[in-house]
Amino acid sequence: MGVGRRLFAAGTAGLAALALAGCGLPSASSDTPSPTPPAYDDHSWNPQPIGGDYDPADYAAEVREHAETTGVNPVLLMAILYNESYKPHDPDAERAWQKIDPDASFGIANMHKAAFDDIKEGRDFADRQWEELPDDRDLAVLAAAWYVHDLDEGLSGGGTGAYTRDQLLAAGYNAGPGSMADYADGAEPSASVADYLDRLDANWDKAAEAVEG
Questions:
Q1: Domain range spanning residue 169?
Q2: Residue 81 lies in a domain
Q3: What are all long-range contacts of 198-201, with beta carbons under 8 Å and residues at least 24 apart?
Q4: Using an 8 Å Cβ cutoff, are 41 and 87 in contact?
Q5: How far is residue 78's CA from residue 84's CA, in Å, rounded to a whole number?
Q6: CATH number at residue 89
Q7: Within 13 A of 121's CA, how many CA atoms are on the CB side?
Q8: Are 51 and 88 within 8 A, CB to CB?
C-alpha cells in the first residue's frame, strides 16, 4: 500500500504519530513558527524566495516525467515546487541549517525525512537516502510526485469539502494527510495552510506555463 492508504487505514493514533510527514511544515500540530532567522526559516508561510537563482521551471522535464509515472497532475506538482521555493536550495546551505535544526526539510520540494522514508518503501528508489535530496533534484521531484500520489490514494472515494482535489492534495503536502482529511470533511485550514493555498493559486498559471514550456 502507498503512504496514503497506510495513513488513512492507521486510524487517529497513526495519523497523529505521522503528522510530521507533511513536507511543507516541520509539524502539522502547531501554527507557531520556531525562532529561526528569516533567511533559513523552514516554514512554508514565508512567501518570499530567498537567495540563489533557483527556478522550478528549470525542472519542468523532471516534473512531466515523474507526474506521468505517478499519475499526478504535473501542474500541481510544479505549483508545489514554486510554493516550496521560498528558501535557499543550495546543498551546503541546507546541510548547514540541518545541523542547527535537525527537523529541517531537504531538497527543492522541502521534504522531511519521515515522509521520504515512508514513500520510498517498496519503490524503485528504496535504496536512496533522504540525505541525498539536496544534491539530487531529480530524486527530490520524484519523491514529491510519489508523496502527492499517495495523498491522492488516501482521498479516493472521499469528499473534497469546499476545496478542489488539487487544493486538498497541496494542503496535505504542506500539513500532512491527517489535516488533509479534516479539510475534506469541512474543517477550516490553519492560517499557514490557507496562506499556502493562496500561494498555490497565485503560482498556478506560472506552473502551467512552465510545464507546457
A1: 3-10+60-212
A2: yes
A3: 199/47, 199/82, 199/83, 200/79, 200/80, 200/83, 200/166, 200/167, 200/170
A4: yes
A5: 10
A6: 1.10.530
A7: 12
A8: yes
Q: Does residue 117 lie within any of the structural domains?
A: yes
pLDDT of residue 97: 87
Torsions phi, psi of 188, nearest 5?
Answer: -80, 135
pLDDT at residue 194, as a whole number:
97
Report the domain count for the chain: 1
Q: Check residue 213 and give its pLDDT.
A: 86
Q: Is 37 part of any domain?
A: no
Contacts of 187 (CB under 8 A, 6+ apart): 161
Q: Which amino acid is at 79?
A: A
Give the model's pLDDT for residue 88: 81
CB atoms within 10 A of CB 143: 27
Question: At residue 213, what is the residue type?
Answer: G
